[in-house]
From TrEMBL, chain A:
Record family assignment: Belongs to the binding-protein-dependent transport system permease family.
Keyword Membrane carried by entry: yes
PROSITE patterns reported for this sequence: ABC_TM1
Protein name according to UniProt: ABC transporter permease
TrEMBL record, chain B:
PANTHER family recorded: ABC TRANSPORTER SUBSTRATE-BINDING PROTEIN, PERIPLASMIC BINDING COMPONENT OF ABC TRANSPORTER
Protein name in UniProt: ABC transporter substrate-binding protein
Family matches, as PROSITE patterns: PROKAR_LIPOPROTEIN (PS51257), SBP_BACTERIAL_5 (PS01040)
SUPFAM superfamilies attached to this UniProt entry: Periplasmic binding protein-like II
GO cellular component, one term: periplasmic space
InterPro entries reported in the protein's UniProt record: Peptide/Ni-bd (IPR030678), SBP_5 (IPR039424), SBP_5_CS (IPR023765), SBP_5_dom (IPR000914)
Organism, as annotated: Micromonospora globbae
Length: 309, 545
């Protein structure tokens, strides 16, 4: 187990360097254009301004020199600054917790609702509840996230005024329920469906029949024997979903005016602020890697047959 | 001009003129509606791109805050009329070249220090000195000695650094005493006093010069009716009344919170829910079917703004050299149809070269702006037809697709040439190609005046070497007339000469004015009275609760 963990952690290093390199290359080299072309409106920027910025950000150096400088600073914990001179460290500290909070609320909502719906419909196949879950999840999967977002915002925020239409800067939990539901809605549907299939499949397996034959109470059969085995695909989904929720929150963040990383990355891409884009995405990559590792470790806990050496 | 940076904003430029007092139909009779003195409002804004240094701000998010925090030498009345003295006591000249500017005594910055003549000259010298890299530095190009404080990088973006400029200060600025200074221009410029109302010309307190400009810009100190309280990035900028303010436009309420939105739809929903008191431009989604008017009722404010949607020709491309062809294209566009169907009547068809809200502009002086299919076909035949494809370019990151496609379709239907519209992904890439003079077809442009005078609609756009003459239009007679106009003894003479220049431009059609911008704003029930400034920002000093 210890060696396995060490090996997995060491694997993070090349992945980390590789992704930063690729992202840096993509943003800097593949996106064409002079970062100051559109900055001064319908006229070119004054040469004095361009000269100052070029020198400040070493824009006259080849991209790999800039990448090396960026990585050197990164390992010293300095993500650099934006064109406007804001420290990217500060931007990350301000934006990441918001997105993480939103993603965690979304994750909790999708886990609770999705799992409950999936387990219940899996246990009672072809019942009214089962059909209801199937139809409603189909609905959630089919609707684009911004439709759900605008609809719920309009209904709850503007029409009925149960919640405020946008989230305040304090990011209170009560304000995050609607955005969290919107963000997690598609995953919630998938989780319900995966859990349903998994449960109904395992329901007929030998060990469940054995457990029932032994005369164990139904609560214990479902809660311990059935659920534990059926959770493996669901945990995979949930684990990797945190990264996806954080990276994919841009639409939800925009609709509910949440100051997260989605909008920040979007704006950074349009203004060609490669340092900001790379820094935020690098942390996202780390989130993905860590969550993947966690999921793998959880397998061992859920399935006694899996052991890591 | 300032450029809007809101991600989903429909309009790359938005501004407004006209005095608007709305929602006061019944409530004003009450008498006590305007007497609340300690109220607070929340208005919408966007995160300023750079710290709030006036000479360094070129976008609307930061520009609006700077307009609230500072008062310049002159101010532009909300009704779009001629500028009036604000901080200036008098601005005198005999030859439009040497100006003696007296400022009012006893005016204070927010830190309590007095506004003196040196606060202006030092601020202007800082902005003009090229190593400081101020984005608005070109505004000072009129002043004598500007070329001495600028230096250009000898090899563009190459490894060599720009040499130190020859001088640190412009020779044209001279402080006479604490409240008087003299400005000598490089050439006579009648419109110079008008320009002084632009935010690049505001004074800076002494403390600015003792710290890093970016540090100052995070906690700006101005001389306007409100002072800065706090700025939480991407969340809120808080302003409050400056009680020692001694000029005309004192605040009638106390606090102004500028809430920073990423999406105008989020702001609009907050407006409907009563969490926001003013939104300058409602989202496009609310314009369809006049939804915003139903939503807001008498709290909807429709205004027209001094900015024009233009399509410019790349005159450096031989295909577009012939004025007859350019005029044929212009006459082939059904502007009435486009403004009604695409913009739901929220913008009006352009019929003049300068925006008609601008002092010195003449309404209806664009004869090339009519829709005249017969004449268009005739001119095209005279020009020898058009070979190949005529592609109309626009930046696809704002909503220009619909109207640009309608323009291309209109040209195609009328002239029978192969015309279509094509989007370029981002404004930055789009501008890069324009700046490099590499456009191969007519392209979307837009112009919002920096200061209210017809000069701003001619010199930068149509004079050889003008700062936004991207199509490289050049006509010696226009240049000569514009030069005479700029150097005229007074504004009336200048306007007369500019009218002659515009008449020549009208023959050459270097670009196509398509529509005059409109603005659709909304306010909450709390606000009983509000006016918009000449560029469509909320006049916070007019707000009554």
């Amino acid at each position: 187990m210890g060696r396995y963990l060490l090996r997995r952690l060491l694997q993070l290093v090349p992945v980390f360097i590789g992704t930063t390199f690729m992202i840096y290359y993509l943003v800097w080299v593949m996106v064409p254009g002079d970062p100051f072309a559109g900055k001064c409106g319908e006229r070119p920027c004054p040469p004095g301004f361009v000269a100052m910025m070029t020198e400040k950000f070493q824009l006259d150096q080849p991209w790999y020199v800039q990448y090396a400088t960026y990585m050197k600073n990164l390992f010293q914990g300095d993500f650099g600054t934006t064109w406007s001179g804001r420290s990217i460290n500060e931007i990350i500290v301000a934006a990441y917790p918001n997105t993480l909070k939103l993603a965690l609320v979304a994750l909790a909502i999708e886990a609770v609702i999705g799992l409950t719906a999936g387990v219940l419909s899996g246990l009672r196949r072809n019942s009214f509840l089962d059909n209801l879950v199937l139809v409603s999840t189909l609905f959630l999967i089919a609707l684009p996230i911004f439709v759900i977002g605008f609809l719920l915002q309009w209904l709850f925020g503007v029409q009925w005024h149960i919640v405020e239409p946008t989230v305040s800067s304090e990011m209170r939990l009560s304000e995050l329920i609607v955005p969290g539901f919107v963000l997690g809605s598609a995953s919630m549907a998938y989780i319900a469906r995966v859990a349903r299939t998994s449960i109904s499949e395992n329901r007929r397996s030998d060990y469940v029949r054995t457990a029932i034959a032994k005369g164990l109470p139904m609560r214990r059969v479902v809660g311990v024997h059935l659920l534990r085995n059926s959770l493996i695909p669901v945990v995979t989904l949930l684990g990797t979903d945190l990264g996806a929720l954080m990276g994919g929150a841009i639409v939800t963040e925009g609709i509910f005016n949440i100051k997260g990383i989605g909008g920040t990355v979007y704006r950074a891409i349009t203004t060609k602020e490669s340092a900001t884009v790379v820094s935020i995405v690098v942390i996202l990559v780390v989130v993905y890697l860590v969550m993947n590792l966690l999921v793998d470790l959880l397998y061992a806990a859920l399935d006694p047959r899996i052991r890591y050496e | 001009m300032r450029v809007s940076k809101r991600t989903s904003s429909a309009v790359a430029l938005s501004a407004a003129v006209a005095l608007i007092a709305s929602g006061c139909s019944g409530s004003d009779d009450g008498g006590d509606a305007g007497t609340s003195t300690d109220g607070a409002i929340v208005i919408d804004g966007t995160q300023p791109e750079v710290p709030l240094v006036p000479a360094n701000t070129t976008e609307t998010g930061g520009g609006a805050i700077i307009d609230y925090l500072w008062t310049g030498l002159v101010e532009y009345p909300n009704n779009g009329g001629a500028p009036q003295n604000a901080v200036a006591e008098s601005i005198e000249t005999t030859d439009s070249k040497v100006y003696t500017i007296k400022i009012k005594k006893g005016l204070k910055f927010h830190d309590g220090t007095e506004v003196k003549a040196a606060n202006f000259t030092k601020a202007w010298n800082w902005a003009a000195y090229s190593p400081n890299g101020a984005q608005n530095s070109s505004f000072f190009a009129d002043i004598q000695g500007f070329d001495q404080v600028q230096s250009e990088d000898p090899d563009g973006d190459g490894p060599k650094q720009a040499p130190e400029p020859a001088a640190k200060e412009m020779s044209g600025l001279k402080v006479i005493d604490d409240y008087t200074f003299e400005v000598t221009l490089a050439a006579p410029t009648a419109v110079f006093p008008t320009k002084l109302g632009y935010s690049a010309f505001v004074p800076l307190p002494d403390v600015f010069f003792t710290q890093k400009p970016d540090d100052f810009g995070r906690k700006p100190i101005g001389n306007g009716p409100v002072k800065f309280v706090s700025w939480e990035d991407d969340v809120m900028i808080k302003l409050t009344r400056f009680d020692d303010y001694a000029l005309r436009d004192k605040m009638k309420i106390k606090d102004v919170d500028v809430k920073l939105y990423q999406e105008d739809t989020a702001a609009y929903n907050d407006l409907l829910a009563g969490n926001l008191d003013f939104q300058q431009q409602v989202p496009v989604s609310a314009l369809a079917g006049d939804k915003w008017k139903n939503d807001l009722g008498d709290r909807a404010i429709q205004s027209t703004t001094p900015s024009t949607g233009i399509i410019a020709f790349p005159i450096y491309d031989p295909k577009y050299k012939n004025p007859k062809l350019r005029k044929a294209v212009s006459l082939a566009i059904n502007r009435q149809d486009i403004t009604e169907k695409i913009f739901f009547g929220n913008r009006t068809p352009a019929d003049s070269w300068a925006n008609p809200l601008t002092p010195g502009a003449k309404a209806g002086n664009c004869t090339a702006c009519q829709y005249n299919p017969d004449e268009a076909k005739k001119l095209l035949a005279e020009a020898g037809g058009f070979q190949g494809e005529m592609v109309f370019y626009y930046n696809a990151d704002a909503s220009h697709k619909e109207w640009m496609e309608a323009v291309a379709q209109s040209v195609k239907n009328t002239l029978g040439i192969n015309a279509r519209a094509e989007g370029i992904p981002t404004f930055a890439v789009f501008r890069q190609q324009i700046n490099a003079h590499k456009m191969t077809g007519p392209y979307r442009a837009g112009w919002q005046q920096d200061y209210p005078d017809v000069e701003n609609w001619v010199n930068p756009l149509y004079v050889t070497g003008g700062s936004s003459n991207d199509g490289l239009y050049s006509n010696k007679e226009v240049d000569a007339l514009a030069k005479q106009a700029s150097g005229a003894k007074n504004l009336d003479e200048a306007h007369a000469k500019f009218a002659e220049a515009v008449a020549l431009i009208d023959q050459d059609v270097p670009s196509i004015p398509v529509y005059f911008q409109g603005q659709q704003s909304g306010h909450s029930e709390k606000i009983k009275k509000v006016e918009l400034t000449n560029v469509g920002e909320i006049d916070i000093t007019s707000v009554e609760l």
